[in-house]
TrEMBL record:
Organism, scientific name: Mycobacterium yunnanensis
Pfam families xrefs: Sigma70_r4_2, Sugar-bind
Family, as annotated: Belongs to the SorC transcriptional regulatory family. Belongs to the sigma-70 factor family. ECF subfamily.
GO BP terms: DNA-templated transcription initiation
Annotated Gene3D superfamilies: 3.40.50.1360, Homeodomain-like
Top-level taxon of origin: Bacteria
Ranges of residues in domain Sugar-binding: 93-316
Protein name, per record: MarR family transcriptional regulator
Domain RNA polymerase sigma factor 70 region 4 type span(s) in chain numbering: 26-59
Amino acid sequence: MQPPAQAASNSGGTPEDLRLALRAATLYYLDGLTQAEIAAKLGVSRPTAGRLIARAKARGLVRIEVVVPPTMKDDLHADEERLLEERYGLTEAVVTGHLGRAAGALLMRRLSENDVLGFTWGPEQVAAVTALAPGVASCRVVVQLDGAMSTAAYQTGMEFILSRGADMLRASAMRLPAPLYADPSTVTSMRNDSVISRTLETGRRADTMLFGVGSVSTSTTLFEGSFLDTRMLDELVSLGAVGEIGGRFFDANGAPVITELAHRAVSVPLEDIRTCAKTILVCSGPPKHEATRAALLGGLAKLLVCDIDCARWLLEH
C-alpha cells in the first residue's frame, strides 16, 4: 500500500478521506474484518465502510497478488484458463493434467438437482463419470444423446456412463436403444418409436451436456468402432469437416457439415447442443485439438476441460 501523503497527491483526495479509506482497506484485506466490523470500529455505516474499501482499491491504495505455490505450478494454470475464457467466450475453462477428475468435479459444481444431464459416449465421458463421488451432486435424469449400438466388437462405454452417472447423481437413466447410424428409412421408423423418440426429445432439451469431440481420421473412435469407413472419411474431409460430436460433423468454424450421415444419424443435432445452457467439452490428445477449436468457435461448448498442451495450442491458433 502507498503512504497516505503520496496517495493524496496522486489521486486528489483529502488526507483525511484517504486516511480513512486506507484504514478501512487495511482492516479488510490485512486484518480480515468484515464490513460490519469495520463500520463499528471506524464509526461509520456499513455501506460507507464498503465504499471506503472500494475507494481505496480504485485509487491504487490496494494491490492484490495471487501467488501459486511452487509445488503446484505444474497443476495450476489460472492464466491460461482466463485467456481461454476471454478468447473463446467460455463460461469456464479448466486446464489440468487430470482430465477425468477435473471434468467430474466441474460437472458436480455446475449441476442442479432438477437438471436433465446428457452424455455422448467416449473415453473422456467414461473418465468423468468414474470420478463422480456419491452424495456431492444430484440431477433429475441422465440421458443418452447418441446411439451406441454397433455390429463390431467395440465397447463404447455407454452403459457404464449411464449406470454410474445415474447411481452417483441419484437420477433416473434414459437409454437410447439404437445404432449411431442407420439408413434414412430406418431412422424415420425409429423416430416413430415411443422410447427412442422420447429419449431423443429429452436429450435435445437437456439442461447440461457433457461430451468429447472426435477427429476426422482413422484414429477416431467412430472409425475404430466401424461406424465409419474410409470412403465416408474421404467425403467428410473433402467437404471441410474437422470434427464431430455425437456423430454430427462440423467444419473449422463449428458449422454443420451436411452429408448422408447427417440424415442417418440417431443423435441430438448440433443446433440443440449449441443452445444448451451448460455444455461441457472434455478434450484429450493432440489429434482432437483442431476439432476442439472448431467446436469452441461454433459455440458448441460453454465450458472446457483440457490439458496444458491443448490450452497452449488453442491460444496460439
